[in-house]
Each structure stands twice: as structure tokens, then as C-alpha cells.
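Ticket #4471: structure export looks truncated?
Reporter: QA, pipeline team
Priority: medium

Steps to reproduce: submit the single chain below to the structure queue and open the exported record.
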Amino acid sequence: MGYTFFTISAYVFMRAFEVLFKGREDMPWYKVCVKIIAVGVLYSGLATMIWLYFHNILLLGFDPK
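Actual output as written to the record:
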């Protein structure tokens, strides 16, 4: 369950970043930050799905139990 909560919180962080900096979409640093955060969210989601099927593979570096 720990990986699932981590992924959900990463997604909430990404959405909060987009809401807090609304109106600055034309800035180059904004686009880079959103892409970096999105890659992190996708990686944590993938790690969660892999952990759900193979409980001994810990891709996020911590034991979710």
C-alpha cells in the first residue's frame, strides 16, 4: 500500500504545481519542471504496478510494508 500512496501523493504534487503556477505556462522553466515531475509520477506508477505483481522488486528504494 505504501507505493500506492506514494504514487497518489506524487500525482497530487504534480497537479498542485500546475495549479500554483497557472498563468506561467509560457515560461521555459515551467515546462521543464512539469516534464520532470510527470516523469517522476509515471515512474512511481510503473514501480507500483510492478510491485503489485512481483512483491520482491522494490523500484522506489523502500519497503512499502
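Status: closed, not a bug. The export was complete when the record was re-opened. Leaving a note from the reviewer for reference: Helices lie at 2-20, 28-53.
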